[in-house]
Amino acid sequence: MKLAMVGLGRMGGNMAQRLLEGGHTVVVYDRSPEVRAALAAKGGTPIDDLTRVVVALEPPRVVWLMLPAGPVTSDTVATLEGVLAPGDVIVDGGNSNYKEFMVDAERLAGKGLNYVDAGTSGGIWGLTEGYCLMVGGPDDAVKLAEPAFLTLAPPGGYAHVGPAGSGHFVKMVHNGIEYGLMQSYAEGFELMKAVEEFSLDLHQIASIWRYGSVVRSWLLDLTERALADDVTLSTIRGYVDDTGEGRWTVQEAVDRAVPLPAITAALYARFSSREPDAYQAKLLAAMRNQFGGHAIHAEEPVGQAGAGPAVAGHEPHGSAPPAT
Questions:
Q1: How many CA atoms lie within 13 A of 145 on its CB side?
Q2: Residues 194-237 pLDDT 10s
Q3: Which of 107, 150, 156, 309 sits between 20 and 30 A of 233, alpha carbons compared?
Q4: pLDDT range class, residue 295, cuts 50, 70, 90
């Protein structure tokens, strides 16, 4: 089939290449001329103006967006809305909020345009391994774009999961689960690292768990790769971003009174990673000192790292032992 790919970053560029290798004709657009040229060298048909997508494709047109969620996607959809014709299809493969997507889908439907949401998982490995695609939208529109879905996904990795919005919803939950899985691996390996008397080889353990273990997974495969490079992770700062889907998953659970303790804890762990000297942790230490006389570990003076923390104490009232 012939389609356009708009947004040629780490995901979009590889997806365009996989489509080209699968025999599709792909019109490619990105704001960067260098990126467009790189895909053109691989067989893509470059355009330098998004509004020209209508002349680069024949109706009914399929335009796939791989853009950051939010204003960038919304502005691009608004531009396309002004130039596409009834029956054309816009596929949003980014991590858009499913509720916002549904509002836009209803508006576009009023103009005869189809808005399909394709929750996409696979990361930078998707070019060779394929992408898991969780697709929502009208049956006819999904069928029109289905040849591309089947090329991008590995066998069994694509499904039309429901109406408009359902693809982004399923991908949102997928990412929430991902948070929990990643957090569990991170905590387990930190515990093993802390048991110094065993001198455990964490890379070795990650490797053997990949074979026959009930915790084997692709995320564990990636963990093994990371530990093979540097088991101490000495060059990596412990700051973990979140791109929104985990928050949306937790908020959805709150709105529907569905308990998600593991996913919620994993989200908050990411928040904690950004505050190495968190005020709340300091306040917890201060409270423990006040009620139980527990020691306070003071800040190390600048330039004296490694000298060991100064410890301040507070005697408990009377002769009772410190509270626990």
A1: 35
A2: 999 999 999 999 999 999 999 999 999 999 999 998 999 988 88
A3: 309
A4: confident
Binning pLDDT at 50, 70 and 90, where does residue 281 land? confident
Tokens of 213: 């273990």
Considering the candidates 171, 224, 275, 299, report the single residue annotated as catalytic. 171
Mean pLDDT of the chain, nearest integer: 91
How buried is 298 (Cβ within 10 angstroms: 0-12 exposed, 13-18 middle, 19+ buried)?
Answer: exposed
178 carries an active-site annotation: yes
User: Region 89-108: what's the mean pLDDT?
Assistant: 97
Q: Verify whether residue 100 is a known catalytic residue.
A: no
Residue of 111, 178, 197, 300 marked active site: 178
